[in-house]
Amino acid sequence: MSEYMRKIEAAAAFLKTRAGIEPRVGVVLGSGWGALLTGVENPTAVPYAEVPGMKVSSVPGHAGKWIFGTVNGQPCAIMSGRLHYYEGHALADVTLPVRIMKAMGVCVLILTNAAGAVNTAFEPGDLMLITDHINLTGANPLFGPNEDELGARFPDMSRVYDPALLDAARAVSREQGFPVREGVYTWMTGPSFETPAEIRMARLLGGDAVGMSTVPEAIVARHAGLRVLAASCMTNMAAGVLDQPLSHQEVLETAARVERPFQRYLYELIGRV
Ligand code: HPA
Questions:
Q1: Cβ atoms 61, 31 nearer than 8 A
Q2: Which of 246, 242, 219, 245 shows the shortest CA–CA distance to 230?
Q3: 220 CB under 6 A from ligand 1?
Q4: What average pLDDT does the structure give for the chain?
Q5: Which of 115, 212, 234, 237 is catalytic?
Q6: Fewer C-beta within 10 Å: the chain N or C terminus?
Q7: How far apart are CA 23 and CA 30, in angstroms?
Q8: Average pLDDT in the 131-138 region?
């Protein structure tokens, strides 16, 4: 067995002894999405630092722990805080939690994030369901030898974001009278925000949002055969849209403002997947 496979199995075996449930749904909470944790029944927290082989996030606003529990009837493995490529982690480490969730029995993965709005019809505070992505980093978490046990060498990416899950997300939006946008998420490495010229390029290429996460997890999830749903919190207009500088403070402020309605939406959605 490869070193990587051993790492996945050791982490999953450890978490199975701690989780208290067998998770079916995996959830990664980005900025703006943390309020979901208020709706978790019988939560068990496990800091990433305690999990053999897992790296720890260094970003303010990213807590760095697993929460296991039930959300609207679904046994969930929730990541409160994620690892980012820009922190200097290898993409294998950034995406290890996805492999761990799969090894624990997760079959649906919900990825959330904060993103800049490239589409000028969007507004800060909007929720965007991700229908597809563009990887502008030149990196891919599947670089290196393929583990055939984990997935195919050349996995199909024509429907990364599961059409049936997107339909469920649209239905919840209609029923709650909570409008959601849809669009293409563009992955840039960060940690610097983009330049106005880069944002014009992203728009020209068909991007509606830009962010520094989610795509590596989605690629690995599809490689592993998980069904994926992803959503972005538009925390700011992307660089150059407005005549003002971008800041992490603005990202956190918008995220805090929308936490409640996003929590209500995501809670309902988790019950449907
Ligand atoms: N760019 C990249 N990532 C982001 C942004 C942005 O404007 N806002 C929140 N995450």
A1: yes
A2: 219
A3: no
A4: 95
A5: 212
A6: N
A7: 19
A8: 98
Gap from CA of 114 to ligand 1 centroid (Å): 7
Assign 226 a pLDDT band (cuts: 50, 70, 90). Answer: very high
Check if the beta carbon of residue 113 is closer than 8 Å to that of residue 232. yes
Indicate which residue of 57, 80, 84, 198 is catalytic.
84
Q: What pTM does this model have?
A: 0.97
* 184-216 per-position pLDDT tens digit: 999 999 999 999 999 999 999 999 999 999 999
Q: Find out whether 134 and 183 touch, Cβ atoms under 8 Å.
A: no
- In angstroms and rounded to an integer, the radius of gyration of the C-alpha atoms of the chain is 17
Cα gap 37→79, rounded to integer Å: 10
Q: How far is the CA of 80 from the centre of ligand 1 (A)?
A: 19
Checking DSSP bridges between strand 65-71 and strand 41-47, what pairing results, if any? Answer: antiparallel
Q: Does the C-beta of 193 come closer than 6 Å to ligand 1? A: yes
Task: Report pLDDT for 1.
Answer: 82
Q: In Å, how far are 179, 203, 243 from 214, measured between CA atoms?
A: 22, 19, 28
